[in-house]
Design brief:
The chain is of the alpha+beta class and about 290 residues long. Helix content is about 35%, strand content about 25%. Belongs to the RimK family. LysX subfamily.
Length: about 290
């Protein structure tokens, strides 16, 4: 029997659903709080296998999950998603570059590496024609994401970043503001299969569509174009269990703007009636290394 460990640092709907699904299937599964794990270099050569055959990495903290995955993989454990996928998807700059390099339609993004060059970028932008969005290169749930529709707001954001002690405070990531309907699209790809897709509408007085910000998920009809793009985008970042987020540009059509490594699927499950947790467990069960 395959032994599962579900690694978490905050127990959400998704982790509970995965655990309960595995129990219903009669599988050997544990919930493991990644904050309490202690490892050392002797684990590299130890014959004592503390963890299971398949580990589902569900830690919200990008860095906690990423460094823990590095350690576990070096010790020979099979972690989903793997560290390569997590490294790309957890970094918006890397994601944008890799999508563009692989000819996946994605919004134009701009990067600068200190405040002076960021100010220079802001001075050059024609905001009447080409507004942008500021995003932290690391982060989720729409936190720290701001629409920039004029030079004044852009300069204020840069000044605020200068007050931060974060090592990423001098990495500036701007993305073109897509002219779209008041919604985006969340696709959940498991392996090579699109298992669910929904529209996400923003809540009242909120432009971000994140369900964590009060957004609402609604069923959509999956087209061949949508399915093909979601799977292609997943494949270029490394496969696994991924949330592919798209927007519908009024002129260019579907654009992939972000990919989530520890995708939340409560909204998609409720809107579609699809048991996403069951499909994830079925996929993970088949990833056991021989």
């Amino acid at each position: 029997m395959v032994k599962f460990d579900i690694l978490f640092d905050k127990l959400r709907f998704e982790e509970k659903a995965l655990y309960n699904t595995a129990i219903k299937r009669g599988l050997d599964v544990r919930l493991v709080d990644s904050r309490n794990i202690i490892m050392d270099t002797d684990d590299l050569v130890s014959s004592n296998r503390e963890f299971g055959d398949v580990l589902l990495q569900r830690s919200i903290s990008h860095f906690r999950g990423q460094f823990l995955t590095y350690c576990l993989e070096l010790c020979g454990y099979n972690v989903i998603n793997d560290s390569k996928t997590g490294e790309v998807c957890g970094n918006k700059l890397l994601t944008s570059m890799i999508l563009k390099k692989n000819n996946i339609p994605t919004p134009k993004s701009f990067f600068s590496f200190n405040a002076d060059s960021a100010f220079e970028f802001i001075e050059k932008v024609n905001f009447d024609e080409n507004p942008v969005v500021f995003k932290p290169v690391i982060g989720s749930w729409g936190r720290g994401v701001f629409p920039v529709r004029n030079k004044e707001i852009g300069k204020i954001i840069i000044e605020m970043r200068q007050e931060s002690t974060s090592p990423f405070s001098n990495i500036f990531y701007f993305q073109e503001l897509i002219h779209r309907p008041p919604r985006d699209i969340r696709c959940i790809v498991v392996g090579d299969k699109l298992v669910a897709a929904v529209y996400r509408y923003s809540s009242e007085n909120e432009w971000r569509t994140n369900v964590a910000k009060g957004g609402k998920a609604e069923l959509l009809k999956v087209t061949n174009e949508l399915e093909d793009l979601a799977i292609k985008a997943a494949n270029v970042v490394g496969k696994g269990i991924l949330g592919i987020d798209m927007m519908e540009d009024n002129e260019r059509g579907l654009m992939v703007h972000e990919i989530n490594n520890t995708v939340e699927f409560r909204g998609a499950s409720l809107a579609t009636g699809i048991d996403v947790a069951d499909m994830i467990i079925e996929y993970a069960k088949n990833q056991r290394k021989s």
